[in-house]
Every structure is written in C-alpha cells, then in structure tokens.
Amino acid sequence: MKMCDAIKGCGHQVTLYAKKPNSQTSPILFPLNEIYGIENTFKIVTYKALSMVRNINYDLSVLLQVLINRPNLVYTRSLRASYLCQYIKQNNVLELHSIPNTLFNKFMLKSLTRKKYLNFIVTISLSLKEKLLQQHPYLKENNIFVHHDAVDIQRLSLKTDMTTQTKSSLEIHSNSKIVLYVGHLYEGRGINIIHKLAKKLPHIHFLIVGGEQDDVSYQQSISLKMNIDNLTYTGFIPNNQLPQYYQAADILIMPYQRKVSVSGGGDTSTWMSPMKTFEYMASNKPIIASDLPALREVLNETNSILVEPDNIQDWKFAVENALTNYQMANKIALNALQDAQANTWQSRVTRILENYKV
To answer: What was the pLDDT predicted at 53?
Structure first.
C-alpha cells in the first residue's frame, strides 16, 4: 500500500492487484486507505484466491488484466507473478523479502534470469542480497539493488499533543514513563524480554501495540502468571492511529532475538528490514534495539542504543540510561529522525525507478 501511494505521489498511474477472500473490484477502497494512512487514491482490484487450485484463478485473473491494460511496468513482491510476466513479455521488477526456498520457487527464479523482461530485483537489506547471491550464484550482482523499507514522515508528525488523552484511554498514570513496542508477537520478537523488563522495572509502564488476537491472549496469560501489572496490550491498531502511541512513549524498543519468525514461519533475522525501524526513527524518540547485523544496516551507536539480544541486564541498564541521560537520549533521537528523513517512501520509489530501463 505504501509503495503504491508513493508511486502515485511521484505522478504515475497505479493499479494495485491483491487477493481477497470475497471477489471485489473498486476504484478506491477507502477503509484500506484510512487504515494504512494513504495520502493518494489509486485503483485497487481484488480477486478471490481459491486455495484448492493453488491460487491459479487469481494468477490468471491478474494476468488477463495486465494483458488488457499493458502497463509500462509491473512492480511485484510475488515471484510467481514475475515468472508469469515473462510469458506475456511484460516488463517487471521483483522485490524480495526472503530467500526462495522451495524447488518450484528456485526453478522460477532461475527461469527469470534467462528472459529479458525482469528488469531487476530489489531486496530489503544488503544481507538478503548477499544471501541471495550466495545461494543462487547465477544471479548478477549488478542486477540486484538494495532498498530498505521506508517511512511516511508527515503522517507521524501530529499537530496536537495527544499524550494525556492516549494515557488516559489506556488507563496509564499521567506521570508514568512508557516503554513502547510496536509489531507482531511472533516467536523471536523479544516479547519474553519485555516480560522480564517489566518485572525488573515495576515503576515503568510497558506498552505493546499490535499482534493477532490469539498471540495477544497467549502473551497476556504469561503476564498474568508472572504477576506483571505494568504491561498493557492493545492488540491490532490501524496504521493511521499509531502516531499517537509513538507520541505518548518515552522509549521505543526492538528486542529482536537471534532467530526471528514471520507469519509464514521461518527465520528472517539474517536479512530482515523491519518497516517499524524507520517509523521508530521518524518518531523522534530514543530507540533501544538488539545488536543484530541486519538491524545495523540502518541503526548504529549514533542513532540508537544497541544491546545484546538476550542479555536482560543490558536491556535494563539501557532503559534506565535512556530515561535518565536526557542529553544522550535526545541526541540519538534527533540523529535517528534525520536519518529517517532520507528514507521516505517517495524517495525509495524515486531511487528504485532510477534503475528502471525499458
């Protein structure tokens, strides 16, 4: 959604094709635009994907639309879509967030290199590019470009201070310091670290925003067993409401562990580029993050506090230091904001399209 928004913002016509449980086409899906904080309106076409036929009906529906409309470029995160584009001689760019690991995915990726319609590949981290080249040596290094995820700076800049209102709605004392985590609650996201920190720092309030309901319920049960009463879970919050939570926080944390799961399973710790990294940076609040190679592509000692992922004493010290050393906290927060300003969605699109050649 954010990429489509930015491409439209750069002056291009955009149509987003996506899967939906119930078939539906609409020029604009306003609820989605509101949820994702979209500024520009663009056409969204959704098709029902039948799992019993491995989504073939969805693929063929989109392929037919591409054939009819003949866009200048298809930008996709689907390896299968990129593969099918070759058969209709359609220029495309493939953005990868993981390594193709099934036999069929490996076959499709190799097939793409034999055709001329895949203009180039985009990866979300340098680590992912290096891993991709290591496992698929037939790929050309100069045809893979690294573009980390980005952020909408303007959306995170609230005109009014909603801190008191946000704390009140969450039943958090107005004088409480808040340590905030935003994201999913999958294995390896460090929720166990947050539990331990909350236990060791009872005078600080910890806030977890996000997560699927089953995961939230599970983590809440753990908090209950540990007798933690200074930890609040909100569950899923629409993207356009996140700024008020960032504003209310004193510290933002990313306690990723050395093995990080995603919704489909697997480990992405080696090459991940969490979108929330740039949201954190744009929030002008001090960041404490796990010291992992993938995160170091964006974070460093000048714009964050980096600690050993599983060292709870280091995490405790980092939180206390960020809350008491105001000069240091303000400095790294400002540095992070300045770094984020160079990584907007629109600048990402501009850099990507500079590589595009018909």
So the answer is: 61
